[in-house]
Amino acid sequence: MWSTLVIFCSLLFTQSAVFDFSAMKPGEGPWGAKVQLLGKNFDAKSVKVYYDNTEIKPLSIAPTVITVAVPENAKDAWFEIEQGGRRLRAPSVFTIKNVTFIEKSDPATGPADIWVRLHGRFFTADTDFYLGKLRLNAKFISEKEVSVFLPPGTPSDFFYCTSFGARLKSAVKYSVLPFPTVSSVTPEKAWHEDKITVRGRNFCADAALLVGDKPLTVTRRTADTIEATIPDGVVTGPIRVRCYARDFAAPRPLAIEPPYGAIIKAVPEAGAVGDWVELTGSGFTAKDQFWLGNAAITEVKWISEAQVRVRIPAKAVSDLFHYKSHNRIRPSTVHFTIAIPPELAGTTPVKAWNGEKITLRGKGFCPDIRVEVGGVAFPVDTVTSTQEITMLVPRAAKSGKFLLMCKHWKIEAGAFDLTPPALAIKTASPLSGPPGTEIVFEGAFFPPDAKVFIDKMSLATRVEGAGRMIATVPVATKGKIRVFAYERFWETPHLYETAYPKPEPSKFEPAVSWHLGSVTIRGKNLCTKPSVFLGKTPVKVLEATAAYVVVALPAKAEAGEFTIECFMNRAKVPGKLQLKPPVGNIASIFPLSGPVGTFLTVRGSQLKKDSAFFIGKVQLPARYVSDTEIQIEIPPAAPSGKIVLVAARLRVETDFTFTLA
């Protein structure tokens, strides 16, 4: 009896401990998602959970719920629970639904026209990426990383990606900045282990600095400053900031040079062999060597980094100082002259005038030689060598001996003869004419300040070169022509007398014109202030010379003959002006009646492409076919009326009337 009761109770207890797997929540989700497996009688010590027939470790176990995480790289499969020798499946297959999301961008800010790395989860080769509404070109790297290209002109916005047919906005915003620019590098010349500072704008957070292909050691970065140290092995080359996989060059290369010394001044600048000279500069050391040209200087007294004294060697000649610093010999810009007194051997030419050049030849001419004659300085134009110089004769020059001044020497030698050239007038024409006549002189040695006179009356004179000048006669006069040049008067054999010749027009052109057109009358003895008539109507003179007169036709000109008047002398111009509008000739327009939308064909000759047609104030649409045909259309607003042609800024009423029917 007792054993039977024990067996019954044992069976009852076993039945009450049987587990059940009734549901799972949720039924779909991404890798790593937490899923609750619901049921009863789960035993934390013995229960096992499987996904796709592979055991997984639960996150937590309670009697009625087991929490698990979806395994990485899982596919759609069954969750199963095993306990007490039984293994139960979930009511349905768990569906993997990896929703794509973007976690961050690298860089977070920067310019457009670059590739940007996006980091997130569940990227595929088919995922589309956007910045705002702009779809981006993407390179798939892994399910956690892609590279996208931001084209030029892209604005700042949030990144988007597609997932399961939806376009999802991320929390990642990309702020578009301009590309970096480099404005300066300080210093522009440096040596190994020196520090340099590069300034500019929009430098990236991981900006690198290179000289040529060699990277520098960057010690500090901001958006507008990069500080770096120059390592060994770097040589002179372009300096570049590398950001966003691109290089941005500085305005000038960085010179990598040791701190060479430099000579900037010598005192004195000239002297004899054996003299001591003090050299001023920078970077001098006790080991430095010096030369004057090719002559080595063996006696050197080092005073400081900025000063040494050297003794001019026995075989030295005038030349530049050279200097050996850091095993490199460099010429300086400092010249030393082995001075000898200047000597004058000859002058070319022997005689000259103000403004002309003369050349002195001799020896011992120093680079800064000065020359005077009678206390007047002659500007030195060119020091060709120590044996030749070229000078300009000043306006205040006078005849006398040359005074040559070099260093402390003043040597008087030779002689200068201030002699003007002989003015030569070969022709003068015309020798008669009305006031305003221009007399043209041809000849030689006309100075720029030459002045023409008729007796004592000065004429406005224009010198166009040493062989040509022009003088204008202002009023009626008569007398002998003289020229003032080279500080004296030159008499000529020519006499000038005012005369009023009758104008002799020969033709006009064009023979056919129109209102407001211009016509040119040509001939002889045409004056500069003529009166011109077309028939009896005076016309406006636009330009007038002795050879031609240009006139403007009045707005209501009529065909006829031109008459020109000069100094009360009248003459008719041969030929008769014809008036013809420059708008082409219209022979016919057809049809001349019809409804709105009717097409009319205009036929004629010399029709223009810019022809416009009007009825009243309404312009008719026109299509140019050829210079003999134009098609026009009657628009809705057109009334009946005369057809008007406008071309070449002229408005001409035709003989054709259109009737709207």
Would you state the CATH class of the largest domain? Mainly Beta
Between the first and last Cα atoms, what is the distance in angstroms? 129 Å
Annotated CATH topology of the largest domain: Immunoglobulin-like
- Share in β-strands: over 45%
Rg, nearest Å: 52 Å
Number of structural units classed as domains? 8
- Strand order of the main beta sheet, please? 11-13-16-15-14-17-18-12
> What's the overall geometry?
flat
Compact overview of the structure:
The protein has 661 residues and is mainly β. The protein is 2% helix and 57% strand. Residues 1-16 have low confidence and may be disordered.
Tell me what the structure shows:
This protein has 661 residues and is mostly beta strands. The chain has eight domains: 19-96, Immunoglobulin-like (Sandwich); 101-176, Immunoglobulin-like (Sandwich), CATH 2.60.40; 181-256, Sandwich (Immunoglobulin-like), CATH 2.60.40.10; 262-338, Immunoglobulins (Immunoglobulin-like, Sandwich); 343-418, Sandwich (Immunoglobulin-like), CATH 2.60.40; 424-498, Immunoglobulins (Immunoglobulin-like, Sandwich), CATH 2.60.40.10; 504-579, Immunoglobulins (Immunoglobulin-like); 585-660, Immunoglobulins (Immunoglobulin-like), CATH 2.60.40.10. The chain is built from one helix and 72 strands. The strands form 16 sheets. An eight-stranded mixed β-sheet has the order 11-13-16-15-14-17-18-12, with no helix packed on it. Strands 47-49-52-51-50-53-54-48 form an eight-stranded mixed β-sheet, with no helix packed on it. A seven-stranded antiparallel β-sheet has the order 55-57-60-59-58-61-62, with no helix packed on it. A hairpin with a 2-residue loop joins β61 (562-566) and β62. It starts with a helix and ends with a strand.
